[in-house]
Amino acid sequence: MDLNRKHKVSLRGASSGEMSRDALLAQVSQARELRSYARRANAAAIFIQRVWRSYIVRKKAAFEIQEEWESSLSSHSDTLTKSWVSSRVLRPFLFFIRSLCVQRQKIEPRDVHCLQTCFKILLESINSNDQGYNFCSLAVGTSEESKTWACQTRRLVSLCSFLLTECGYSQERMKDVLGVTALLLRILIVLTDPKSWKIISKQNFEDAETAGKMIVQFLGNCKSGYYTAVRRYIKSLTKNTDERLLITTSAVTLAIRPFHARQPAFVDDSQLDTNLAVEEYVSLILTVPRLVCCLPSALIRALKHKSILMPSFHTILILRDKLLTRISEIEHSEKQSCTTEIPSVGWAMGNIISLATVSENDFMDTQESNSEMFYVLYVRVIVTLAKNLLSQVEKVGTQDIHHDFEATPDETGKGKNSVKISFVELLRPVCQQWHLAKLLAASGKETRVIADKDASTSNKKGSEILELFDIARFYSCMLRIFCVLNPVVGPLPVLNMLSFCPGYIFSLWSSLESVLLPEDGCTADESSHKPAEASWYRRSPSEKKLKHLKNDGVNKWVNVLNKFSGKSPRPREHVEGTSDQPGSSQANESTDGGWDVQTLRGGPVGISKDVSCLLHLFCATYAHLLVVLDDIQFYEKQIPFTLEKQRRIASVLNTLVYNGLLRGTGPENRQLMDSAIRCLHLLYERDCRHPFCPSALWLSPGRTSRPPIAFAARTHEVLPTSDVFTSPSMGSVITITPHVFPFEERVHVFREFISMDKASRKMAGEVDAPGARSIEIVVRRGHVVEDGFRQLNSIGSKLKSSIHVSFVNESGLPEAGLDYGGLSKEFLTDITKAAFATEYGLFSQTTTSDRLLVPSPSARYLENGIQMIEFLGRIVGKALYEGILLDYSFSHVFIQKLLGRYSFIDELSGLDPELYKNLMYIKEYEGDLQELCLDFTVTEEFCGKMSIIELKPGGKDISVTNENKMQYIHAMADYKLNRQIVPFSNAFYRGLTDLICPAWLKLFNAHEFNQLLSGGNHDIDVDDLRRNTKYTGGYTDSSRTIKIFWEVMKGFEPSERCMLLKFVTSCSRAPLLGFRYLQPTFIIHKVSCDTSLWAAIGGQDVERLPSASTCYNTLKLPTYKRASTMREKLLYAITSNAGFELS
């Protein structure tokens, strides 16, 4: 038997089955808990029974008291007294109504009758002139009577709160409930206004006023529940509120009564009264959605009075954190979701704006007393509420300004947008110029205000000034709110107002300039201008702004923005025109570091919140203005800034964006970075078209911190799109501001991208070995486009693989030679030459001297026209992928579409100069435009057939007038620059991006894209070619024939040199970075030719023609002895359009 299984016995004589000490303690603890639970359950049962018995007893007693009350009233015939009203009518009434109605939250028909009876008796009593019958005389009676009066009046207030709630929720007997509620509100209005009591005399007026204030104080206490009931009642109102007009007016009148009772407290700021009623009003009434839309106009005039708004402003600023917490708690208790509704603090902000600025006349006049205080408080309150609102709506991941604001198709999405639209309607006043004008007029004036605790302690004297920073902070918040919550047009209403407010954007920049570009840190070219501008800073800001707002310059400024005059200057003329001015771009070439703004080297993180708001507002406003500014205004009239200031603006934005991307920014700076990037891009693109900045300006931020090319390229490729702002990365710099890298370096980055792509394809098995998976095609010399389209169009991105081309000559015979890459290059060159020819019909040339390529409108009518353009996009992509240069350049408008960038209206001059000239004539036309008989249509012709296209729906029936001419000009420009070209640019883009990643293309502007494609200049550097040429077959650089060759090359015309280069390499353009990058290297091979003795004595030269091997970039050159012979033979060979056949 196993000893371990033997029955064990403890030393105490007990068996081993007894509990251990721990188990025993656990059992005792469990038993104790069970007994405790049983006691609690028994106590709870007793409590429930006691409550239930109490309820039954109270209910039974209430019914009995109600019956006695009704019978006593019906049989009462004695003289009516105030004591009888208080003790026999009101006291039992309040008891049984509270027990039967208020606690049960239900009103029966019998209860309605009792309410009507009691309220009629009470109203009759308080309207009586008899001291013995008037209920109000109890308030000025003995101490016991006044206490009874106060208690019963407070209960009437609580009953009124219940009835107001029932008005919002009760559907049955609505008219009866409305009637008794109106009666009770009428009674309370009288009871809270001692001046209207008919028993008042000089002796008891103070006692009456004290009693009235006690009731008003209780009214504002949260225990009364009055403001909560008013909130629920107002939220239940609809547009058809005529039947409730009396109740609504009385309820709101009673709600604002505490404001009039506390008004003297604001006479002296040292005796501030933080009345609970104002807190209740702000947190419960002002947060009602669409409050202004729910109430009648008469009440709006009362709520917008400064006696209501000013205490509300003070309370919000003083008790900011407490009120915001209370508003959040109320919102949570009502179970509102911030993702589907506007947060309550947003409605408070919208209601305040709507009440304070219903119209221009209603917005307080700057000449009124305390107007400066009102504006300071108004701006700070809105900013306080706006910041809290933004912290909520931005936290839930709502999209920003430049995303689409299309409504979702489902009903929920429509509901969200309708709520947002109604909210934005409340903010409409801030989009009016008079709103900004009055704020600017009030700025700079000192006033005493009561601000929040932090602000009040920072200024011992309590004096505050409404500064430009405050106004900028206000509108910066408005821009962010409109970006997030305006589902239709985003921040456009605010931007339209700010952009065209005379002088405002100039004031913004002047303030920024004084902070960011101090005199000791200004750029080298502008230090001489600083003294002249210093006087502006010493002037009062309000004087500067009022002068802009009220003088005759207002109309001039607006007219300049709305009129085009003259022809757009040519690009080089702008730079030359400014070269003689102090601070010209040429003067700055030697001081590259001067364009790097020191104060912004830390990015947005290194500047204060005030400057950040000012920058955000300026960038967003100026970016909006740049879209509509034409070249004449920008370059010739230099509105709103001189070109010197434009360069300073560009340097500030360039430094800010570069360092912000390089060092990373927090989410709080996202809006600033978005607007700064957009403004910077618009300035850069304008400079690309017509230079006004030196190249050193754009390169200056990255001169000391640019990484190696390979590292930058790899960082760009692995950067997640969502992290470009928050994560410091050189890759984000390359993505968003590639212009800080010199063009040559960006070409290196582009080639590095392609090398990385080829390496990844090789790792994926797409490129196993030379010649593997190559695409073999046979192309007839006379049908290059058709054969190429038929054999290559369907392969898509597989075109990245190598192409093996076999040419068939015009005689139908295969051409001699093998393709080791040279013939594929020749194929790409020939197919683009044929397809881009105007005779083919896919592309046409602009009428400018550049003769740039642009898709032909007639291409849509050709068979497979759109597909052919998409195929040509792949061919161009293949050329870029392989580093093959083409002989063509595209229109800047077309390239802008490929790069996804904005096209200015002035770019129409490069696309269709005649149309641009006509549109400018229409813009300047001072007569009646209807005389020109124009409408909103455009006529196109194809093969003799005319087609009419409407620029807008019903355009053929809309005449062009002086009022809508700007719409016509922009509609026509939009058609030419966008609508007409977009189908072709989209097709070309689809083909191009099959081989080239879109992010790679965005490294370049339109002019640089053409350089990347075509190699830039239409000539070659003979010296560079000679330095990078190898010689084989016996030739050396000192050979006589070689020396003659280079002499002949220098004597050729540029076009002849390009033809020779194409003869040897199949491409007429030099490599973009020089012949050092030509692969394979340019080779001249010696071809020995035997000449008879008599021919040599007679002066005859070699008759053999030179030939080429394009696959090795080799020129096979016979040993010519005379330059004339070499020139003649070379010209014949390069114009024969033959490949290996001359060998």
Mean pLDDT: 79
Low-confidence region ranges: 263-274, 397-413, 449-462, 520-592, 1139-1143
Shape verdict: elongated
- The total of beta strands comes to 12
**End-to-end span in angstroms?**
110 Å
User: How would you sum up the major sheet?
Assistant: 4 strands, mixed
Helix content: 55-70%
SSE layout and pairing:
Blueprint: H1 21-75, H2 82-102, H3 109-126, H4 143-169, H5 174-191, H6 205-220, H7 226-235, H8 245-255, H9 257-262, H10 276-285, H11 291-294, H12 297-303, H13 306-318, H14 320-333, H15 344-356, H16 371-393, H17 411-426, H18 433-442, E1 446-448, H19 453-458, E2 463-465, H20 468-485, H21 492-499, H22 504-516, H23 530-538, H24 541-550, H25 553-561, H26 571-578, H27 609-628, H28 631-636, H29 643-663, H30 670-689, H31 695-699, H32 709-718, H33 730-736, H34 743-763, E3 775-780, H35 784-792, E4 803-808, H36 822-835, E5 843-845, E6 853-855, H37 865-882, H38 892-899, H39 908-911, H40 913-924, E7 937-942, E8 945-950, H41 965-979, H42 982-992, H43 998-1001, H44 1006-1014, H45 1022-1027, E9 1029-1032, H46 1040-1051, H47 1054-1065, E10 1082-1087, H48 1093-1097, E11 1107-1109, E12 1114-1118, H49 1123-1134
Parallel strand pairs: 3-4, 9-10, 10-12
Antiparallel strand pairs: 1-2, 5-6, 7-8, 11-12
Helix pairs in contact: 1-2, 2-3, 2-4, 3-5, 4-5, 4-6, 4-7, 5-8, 7-8, 7-10, 10-13, 10-14, 13-16, 15-16, 16-20, 18-24, 20-27, 21-27, 22-27, 27-30, 29-30, 29-33, 32-33, 32-34, 36-37, 37-42, 38-42, 40-41, 46-49, 47-49
